[in-house]
Amino acid sequence: MSFELVSFKTCPFVQRAAITLGYKNVEHTVTFIDLADPPAWFLDISPLKKVPLLKVDGEILFESAVINEYLDEITGGELQPKAPLERAKNRAWIEFASNMLGNSYMMTNALDKEKYEKYCSTLVSQMHRVEKCLGEGPWFSGEQFTLVDTAFAPIFVHDAVADYHFSLIESKSMPRVNDWAKRLLALPAVKNSVVPDFDSLYLAGLEKANSYIWHQYAAISDQEKTE
Ligand SMILES: N[C@@H](CCC(=O)N[C@@H](CS)C(=O)NCC(=O)O)C(=O)O
Fold first, then answer.
1. How does residue 46 score in pLDDT terms, banded at 50, 70 and 90?
2. Is the CB of 169 inside a 6 Å radius of any atom of ligand 1?
3. What mean pLDDT is predicted for residues 177-203?
4. Is the peptide bond before 52 cis (omega within 30 degrees of 0)?
5. 12 shares its domain with 49
6. What is the CATH number of the domain that holds 140?
7. Cα 145 to averaged position of ligand 1 atoms, centre (Å)
8. Is the pLDDT of residue 44 over 80?
């Protein structure tokens, strides 16, 4: 079977699929597109005009959660619980992580302080909710690494950009999230889910968007340069 991941370099939803491909050692190729100028072939095959897409022997799969379940199913299925209720709960938390990614996009692309703070506060309260769900770990569901871990990991990859200057993780009030995030960021599949220049590309995107957070970051960088 041949697998081709259609990607945009800073998309967190693509990262979910990249993590599962890496964690499962699935041989694949990656084709990058520019979402600001998407090629006609992509618009033709992507029903929602979004990445990720996974081409499987030429057939098109879309939606990161669906792609990940498929990849897991064809490689042993151990990234999902067997019991239907646990499986359903995990799917719900994957959806929760998607909601957080949406809020994170709104926060980082907000043009003013008020909007930025609104999404930031929603995300912090969502992180607190996750904190309450986590047990002793090491992973979201306990001993077993699952697709919930792959779904949340990109949130932490984005959170770590700019040397955690704007981290949503309050380590004192969220010790379990803090530990879980560190564990995820240390995994090779997570490290390799982004291109080497991910941080600078991500920040360049925020600069292009003229976002509030980018201006805050630029001010900190300027201050650091003069120290
Ligand atoms: N629910 C989708 C979300 C994917 C998504 O929002 N991708 C963004 C990039 S991060 C995209 O392709 N946006 C292009 C657009 O909305 O036109 C998934 O989980 O795969």
1. very high
2. no
3. 97
4. yes
5. yes
6. 1.20.1050.10
7. 25
8. yes
